[in-house]
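Page 37, continued from 36.
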């Protein structure tokens, strides 16, 4: 991380905010250390280090990352890589260059390639808070990310940050909750109620998961979730469910029944199929892929999986499944491949995959002891050793 925050004002209020942000950063460093898994094997540690190094090598001297599907520098992909390096730690120089590039291009990023800016604003809040920058005066134009994110609340639907489509509302909502909480801003009660109401209850195989969005069919009644057999791409999925669980955990609802139901859905999502058994696919019935597996690992870590059994499945487990995607030799050693890259390095798989290799959730203000390994025994609900994530409002 850089040595000092980049604030644009010397007023007393900004000075107080500096103290708040420094305390948040200190809490984050301690939290990330606390979430280093006891079962973190030498293979996983080496893979995570190698993967972080490969990602850092993708950051150019000017801080940019080239769009892997094109030839030009992309602020979107720079944010993606920066978030991976932020969560993983250990690549502070590359992270600093990347965030500086993002600062210079923040205005363009907020509305780039997204259905609503709430999600992109949330990613910028993470980068600002956890690299000791001011989220209320971010980038070259001193963007107030917090106020702008708050302004997206209930613009189209009661309780929702952002606009409605079939795929992104749950993810954007979850990211907004985590980001506001991490920045010390108030999280609206209605936002949490909206997120919990979106959780699937029926059909039975989807109970506990989240799909991209459930519309209201009559007053106070939401449409049932799509069945696992549906061919629609907006059925319950790993990413929506992971971010939702991380959001509930971030505000301290680690013993919420919704979390336990979500973890149960992950068990139904888990795959024993080769080439990476023990991991997770995007939808129930899919074989494992590195992105989905990484996001599920984050949710397991964030919630501590209180009272479910271990995660061994078939001939593997989530950690082994993640390791199976890592390229171990050659010029792209450390990068991850994916089911779609024919053995070649896949930047999309690699940046999210690093979250799974390090077994760390999205950064937030977490306190508490080191959780048990993913494949070990878990504390019971209500155990005083359970990590709790306070919601700062100062």
């Amino acid at each position: 991380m850089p040595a000092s925050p980049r604030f644009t004002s010397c007023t007393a209020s900004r000075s107080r905010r500096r103290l708040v942000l420094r305390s948040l950063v200190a809490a984050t460093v301690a939290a990330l250390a606390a979430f280093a898994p006891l079962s973190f094997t030498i293979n996983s540690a080496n893979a995570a280090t190698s993967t972080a190094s490969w990602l850092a090598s993708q950051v150019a001297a000017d801080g940019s990352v080239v769009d892997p599907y094109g030839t030009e520098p992309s602020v979107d992909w720079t944010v993606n890589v920066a978030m991976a390096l932020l969560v993983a730690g250990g690549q502070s120089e590359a992270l600093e260059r990347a965030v500086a590039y993002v600062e210079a291009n923040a205005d363009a990023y907020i509305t780039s390639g997204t259905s609503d800016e709430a999600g992109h604003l949330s990613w910028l809040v993470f980068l600002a808070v956890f690299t000791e920058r001011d989220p209320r005066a971010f980038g070259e134009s001193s963007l107030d990310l917090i106020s702008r994110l708050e302004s997206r609340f209930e613009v189209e639907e009661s309780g929702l940050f952002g606009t409605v489509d079939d795929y992104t509302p749950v993810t954007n909502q979850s990211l907004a909750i985590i980001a506001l909480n991490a920045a010390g801003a108030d999280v609206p009660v209605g936002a949490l109620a909206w997120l919990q109401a979106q959780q699937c209850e029926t059909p039975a195989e989807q109970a506990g998961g989240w799909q991209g969005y459930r519309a209201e069919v009559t007053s106070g009644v939401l449409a049932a979730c799509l069945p696992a057999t549906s061919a629609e791409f907006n059925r319950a999925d790993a990413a929506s469910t992971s971010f939702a669980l991380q959001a509930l955990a971030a505000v301290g609802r680690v013993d919420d029944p919704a979390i336990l139901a979500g973890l149960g859905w992950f068990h139904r999502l888990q795959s024993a199929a080769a080439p990476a058994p023990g991991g997770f696919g995007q939808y129930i019935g899919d074989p494992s892929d590195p992105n989905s597996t990484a996001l599920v690992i984050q949710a397991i870590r964030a919630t501590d999986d209180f009272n479910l059994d271990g995660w061994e499945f078939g001939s593997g487990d989530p950690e082994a499944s993640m390791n199976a995607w890592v390229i171990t030799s050659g010029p792209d050693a450390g990068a991850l491949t994916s089911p779609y890259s024919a053995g070649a390095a896949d930047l999309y798989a690699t940046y999210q995959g690093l979250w799974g290799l390090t077994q760390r959730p999205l950064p937030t203000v977490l306190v508490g002891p080191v959780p048990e390994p993913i494949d070990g025994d878990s504390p019971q609900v209500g155990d005083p050793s359970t990590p709790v994530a306070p919601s700062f409002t100062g």
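The chain has one domain: 20-358. Flag for discussion at group meeting. The beta strands are 65-66, 73-74, 216-218, 221-222.
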